[in-house]
């Protein structure tokens, strides 16, 4: 293993969207996010509120279920449970909600420990601590996915913990300081409406290999050879190659499994979007039966870093592997002054046909990412 590789005893934890978090209100205007009228009138500048991001799935069994704007018409089912899915929603012609907010006092399981921390360490430090946490697990909130990609498949368990999973937050949820760095260069790519998927390769003699489960006796040869282990994951599962597994089928058809040595890394995770006819309601209008794996990044497992974005594009072109469409390499200076400018830029037609979902911004060092979703696409798809 490389000398500067992180210790396998301290794996890189997978990154997930922060679906439920505490925010501090800095401005109150009509309805930038959804809330019941009573709850919204109770929110003031500098208040602490609990924010539920788009695609949060709140089960009907939750203690706080009665807070949500639910009825028999908008109850969804996800992994065998009924609940409410938080979606974007237009309010009049000018306001598109980016989630739900409620006063923090409605959630004593969060507010009471916070008050205790205030007494123990002071308000400023306790609040900073609170704002950094995710409360999705505490409140049993999950990220909603379409049924076709949410069903459990034969698997080895969760994905390897030492593989980094990207997490793109919407630009509306980013600190405005992102616009203050005028020299940072971003790769801008088209956002595809799919499911994040990883194809990985691990040398059997690397310490990393001791942190993944043994393969079942009947596993196919596609999952290993004399020197390497190969895997295909979504965010929930490290899947076993079976005939009915669309992820594995698509990884093979894309050429990534056959050409993964061409990325020049001994231990590597190729990241991309799994898109197609049965994915995310097929908003990309794929023909029946067609699915694709479209690469957006390459993670060096040994150094815990991303390959530079331009290099990934070059390698994909050389190897004949599909990469997400690149829009530009640019700083935000001169490209966009604020969130509204970015939202306007996101509008347009997709290179796959139809209305474009939006853009993904990746910094060259891989340390920062965010997404800009087209309001037209949100209106069209109801997401």
From TrEMBL:
Its recorded name reads RNA ligase domain-containing protein
Q: Which organism is it from?
A: Staphylotrichum longicolle
- Locate the RNA ligase domain: which residues? 185-365
